[in-house]
Amino acid sequence: MSPQNPEDEAVTLNDILPTTPDLRAERLAELKRLFPDLFTNEGRLNPDELKQLVEPNEVHESERYEFKWYGKAASKREAFTPTTAALVYDQSRSVNPDQADGNMIIEGENLETLKLLLNAYREQVKCIYIDPPYNTGNDFIYRDNYRKDKAQYWEETGSAENGIQLDSNPETSGRYHSDWLCFIHERLLVARQMLCSEGIVLISIDDHEMVNLRRVADEVFGEENHVATLLWEKGRKNDSKLVSIGHEYIICYAKDKLRLNEIGTKWREAKPGASGIHEVYLRLREKHGDDYRAIEDDLRLFYESLPNDHPSRRLTRYKRVDSQGVWRDDNMSWPGGNGPSYDVLHPVTGKPCAVPPGGWRYSTLEKMNAAIAAGRVEFRQDHTEPPIRKTYLLRDDSNENDTDDDSESDAGIQVAGTYFYRSALPASRELESLFGAKVFNNPKDHEVLSRWIGYVSAGDTTPLILDFFAGSGSTAHACLDLLCSGFATRWILVQIPEVVDAATAPGSNALEMDLKTVSDITIERVKRVIQGYGDNPQPMPETGFKVYRLQKSNFPRCAFKPDPSASEADNVAALRRYIDEKEGAFFLSLDERGERAVFDEVLLKNGFQLHYTRERREDFADNTVFEIRDPRRRALVCLAWNENIADATIKRLRELSDTGERPFFICLERSLSTTSKWNLKHFLGDHFNAF
User: Structural domain of residue 572, as residue ranges?
Assistant: First the structure.
């Protein structure tokens, strides 16, 4: 996206095309910045120096432990190759777009989409959840035709009637596992860069590729960043011949597990039934105020009314209340005995209280006094018995840490285990209820996703959640559930427009409902959740989402076909002539929607998130200049094809730069003379981009 004139220095065709950043070049530049001694005087990486770095003793073994498959090197090259594609806003299918706040559903091939998103959303994502194809043969869609002929892909996806032609990966293929590994490897390589330093990735998988997924994820994320492998039991199938395989896995990796340890990250969730008791407590506080005896009486009646299998039944020991919540009596003795002994004076008698047999629970008198001041200790009638330590079910100040170890945390909070049971039936029934008919096979359970997304994202302010195998849209449904419970997230879903037919979705009624592709189902599901559904609909007008479609670049220059027999310089000159001929008419014919599409493409490729704002700058009288802002950055942009950048505009930019504001300026190269371009590069440096 940063071409230069031939008068400045030699350029290549890619310098003139509107591409995403070249990730391979970025990686080399970062390596050169850190280790310049690994490069030659001409600026090329010296393989011998690099080999000395990783193998200082020059020990070359013919056998070593490594994970190889056919196409691995090609998949890495593909992951780091730029794309000229674009995302185009689809207003007709968006829902409450003014309330979207960055929520998006993107219809398109997910690798190209991830590349497009990377520059703007790099290190911004808190949690990635994906449910990729399990490679059972029929359900694994391999974009082989896209790899072979991108033009064919654009032609097919541009057709609303036919959607996209997709290929399966039958077990008879000699590269059955290799194809799947290439498919997942290149996507994880890009996705990892979108995670923030405390980010987490959760990947659903079954036995077909479980072992291979672990090994490729170890390579991408680092074996040391593996957090856990979760086992999701979904139910027994009594018609199985030998063993009922009713489970799946969710593998969990951190972007940087050491970072999580350094900042003291602890994942906790409420025990089943705990939040319900706390809600009853809050209602009784509104009813009885500070009459805690009355609240305790009503709380006892609530417990008695519960059926025996209700999860809150297990927590009936929590029957005392105060201003901080519901609590139970707990032992004041040091765990295991041999605890400290010091004088704790009774507030009425003024005499030292009896010391518990194992010593005081708190290691020092200062910590004991802090617990007393915080209301965590209740004294007996006199000093002859040790006081009671209060253990709360849930408290509004649950982040308070006035104790010696984690056992003092609210007792209604727990660490999740690696095994959990949740039948597959509720998710299917829920989706069928939402649509009034079956439209999708084996949807993921949005309540399970809500639990785990909330679990690994707790404590973050509006974390960004990404799912690039969106399927029926369960991840967005989960995020909307979290919003209803008071935890706001932002989310991005990506789904390829896979055709729904009898082969891909047996028994589906989607076509009868005019849902021709899986991405249609994704969009419609999230729309219905927001608008409310079921016998007691709960509309959510405070939120929404925007729909974008992956398509070829808006710029005609991307259709240019270089002459393979010509030199690079001749092809660059021919491309410049092509741009002058084709893009002048293109820009002059743009309507409001087309102008929006061009701005979206230019800004996304320059690192701006798509929920940017645009406002005309009145201090630029001679050119149409807009100020662009997103949550992280801002820029001044002039994309008027028929306007030359005026001297007054350059002067104003220099004034802003001299005052320390130094804006990022984006414009068309056609609008610049050689002199004005040199001046802008001189005082704006890397804050200037012309294309």
Answer: 556-690
Considering the domain architecture, whether residues 506 and 585 belong to the same structural domain is answered as no
Helix (H) or strand (E) holding 494: strand 490-495
pLDDT at 141 over 60: no
Task: Give the count of alpha carbons within 13 A of 16, CB side only.
Answer: 27
247-254/269-270 β-pairing = unpaired
What does pTM read for this prediction? 0.81
Q: Per the structure, how many domains does the chain have?
A: 4
568 and 676 part of one domain = yes
Angle 148-152-153 from CA coordinates, rounded to 5°: 85
Q: Which residues contact 383 (CB under 8 A, 6 or more apart)?
A: 345, 346, 349, 351, 352, 353, 354
Q: Give the three-class secondary structure for 636.
A: strand
pLDDT digits (tens, 9 = 90+) for 510-550: 888 989 899 999 999 999 999 998 778 889 999 999 999 99
**SS3 of residue 529 by DSSP:** helix
Cβ neighbours of residue 686 under 8 Å, at least 6 residues apart?
A: none
Largest CA distance in the chain: 101
Does one domain contain both 145 and 218? yes
- For the chain, the residue count is 691
Are both 406 and 294 inside the same structural domain?
yes
Tokens of 65: 């432990």
Looking at the fold, whether 534 and 571 belong to one and the same domain comes out as no
- Cα separation of 553 and 586, whole Å? 13
Which SS3 state, helix, strand or coil, does residue 250 take?
Answer: strand
- pLDDT per residue as tens digits for the range 565-575: 988 888 888 88
Same domain, 545 and 639: no
- Evaluate whether 203 touches 238 at the Cβ level (below 8 Å): no
Whether 58 and 203 map to the same domain: the answer is: no
pLDDT band at 165 (very low <50, low <70, confident <90, very high): very low
